[in-house]
Amino acid sequence: MCTYELEGAQLYSIRWYRNMIEFYRYVPKESPATKVFPVAEIKVDVAASDQNRVVLTEVDRTLTGEYQCEVSADAPLFHTDIKAAEMVVVEPPLLSPNVTADRVSYVGGDHIRVNCSSPPSLPAANITWFVNEQMVPGFTANHVFNFSNGFASSLATLELEATALSPVPTLMIRCEASIFDIWKATSHTIVLRERSANPASALGRSFTGAATETCLPTIVMLLLQILLQFLMQNYTETSIR
């Protein structure tokens, strides 16, 4: 689009350039008013183009670049002005983003780490996090991985402390990937449920890890002693009879 104000003067011409190479011209006093110049990869829909806009068809990523619109007023002053803007041709991902977590449940005080990856696209997608349908304003890491074909993939990491989260015992986490206002997709939602703390830990002991390795031999020895004592009693009673 090219908007302008001539302040009462008549329009003389509109000229469109890509990287300062003219490809479209509109001169209302000529017949036909539009003229297209051959420029590689640029195909103009003449019927849909006019003095305010130019429509390109069969666009691919090679047409990403700077475009200029030059407006000229008619005689006697022929005032001319030119403005430029960048156009980015987007090639969105073929799949939705994917989200994974380092756990399936949590207790208060847990450090929760969740990753969201968006498949390759051009350019790389922006990632937004949602926890219990509330948008998270920031996260700890966002990486972009570039590929030789020009595409890029995004990876974002969300880190949360369980004690600072919602009072409800369930966390619903998802991510959303977007490229400008052209493409947007959301991941599946992962559900993390709060679990009760280990009762043994509340008593100052734990039956997991190294503690289990210490307790098991002792329990086995006690069972063997009881079994041996029972066998000895039976043997003694049989001998007396």
TrEMBL record:
Domain of life of the native organism: Eukaryota
Database matches in InterPro entries: Ig-like_dom, Ig-like_dom_sf, Ig-like_fold
SUPFAM superfamilies: Immunoglobulin
Coiled coil, from the record: none
Ig-like domain sequence ranges: 1-72, 97-178
Protein name: Ig-like domain-containing protein
Organism of provenance: Papilio machaon (Old World swallowtail butterfly)
